[in-house]
């Protein structure tokens, strides 16, 4: 029999909470025992107080060490191997894996904090681990204890009937569970998916698996990193990812004017052959809709135009078809205004302008935020040359992207490296497995 002790100043809270449903039936069958313990029983002062003001000042009361420690020791006198768990928002966040791990213990003892929390010495003296229910604050640990006991108890063999098998639950498979339907087949104009009504079990299994993968991809892509997946799952997720990336409206511009030089003067920098080639290749690889190379100098545009034409139409086009493909999305522009006009013409709306910089103090958009934004509106990601953008450019940008951090003082990436790294980060933040 599993024993769940709960140390609390409100033992009556447990009388009804755990007296319904399968957990209460399991208690009736003698599979488990729930044992609320009143911490006040071990408060020995005149008022049986379990809390006091905190050292150092500040609002709120703190639960005293003595009544809690003595309560744990009283439980341990009969049940020495019980595992002592503090419910604590600073603890490790509870998950299905923890429920499976805690199932291995014959006895668990939960300490329910109240007020501002408990005297820190309780942790040193009697606590084995701290568990949080999530990133929010409850008024006390009681509801957290009930939740954890419910999640663990339903895994004890014999607690759930076969009709409620926990094997396919969300998280047990590493994925979120597929949608369920019951009678009637049509309700308020909404029908049950046809595949579930045709009795073809292989097709039903396949539909359910794909729904699980789709829901997990959309809502909890973080779970996909550890979920056990087969080749079909991977192919399906790859398709979901590619569809999502195709709907992304991301543009890249490399500006050669107005840029700062070493003396902070405003200059036009030169186009380099490597930036033309490498950024075109990165942008095509990562599904950027267009890569604009911007310079007001006509001689520079003419040289760059010749390079691009060589690969699009000249000898280069037959020599290396891949390079032709890379340059198909590259365009030369005289000014940033021209770039914005072209995007607005194609997309029917002005793009969100996002500038990049190596400086850490001015960023106001993260990679996940930008990845999300590209799904909702066209975004122009601007990269600079020389010694970076002038203040005018930063002022006209809607956002400044979080910089790429190096590992030390030195942080001077080439612009082509920065483009590749940032595009890859945006890709990773699009979810899925790419
Ligand atoms: C009001 S809370 C104290 C919060 C504490 N001052 C803090 O900021 O970390 C009182 C008690 O509720 C319980 N509690 C609150 N939020 C919780 C959570 N997310 N998970 C587990 N227990 C929680 C803990 O036992 C905690 O000691």
UniProtKB/TrEMBL annotation:
GO cellular component: cytosol
GO biological process: tRNA N1-guanine methylation
Matching HAMAP family: TrmD (MF_00605)
Keyword S-adenosyl-L-methionine: yes
A molecular-function term among this protein's GO annotations: tRNA (guanine(37)-N1)-methyltransferase activity
Key words of the record: Cytoplasm, Methyltransferase, S-adenosyl-L-methionine, Transferase, tRNA processing
NCBIfam families documented for this protein: PRK00026.1 (NF000648), trmD (TIGR00088)
Keyword Transferase found: yes
All copies of domain tRNA methyltransferase TRMD/TRM10-type, residue ranges: 5-225
Name listed for the protein in its UniProt record: tRNA (guanine-N(1)-)-methyltransferase
Reactions mediated catalytically: guanosine(37) in tRNA + S-adenosyl-L-methionine = N(1)-methylguanosine(37) in tRNA + S-adenosyl-L-homocysteine + H(+)
Pfam family, one: tRNA_m1G_MT
Sequence ranges assigned to domain tRNA (guanine-N(1)-)-methyltransferase C-terminal in this UniProt record: 250-426
Residues annotated for S-adenosyl-L-methionine binding in this entry: 113, 133-138
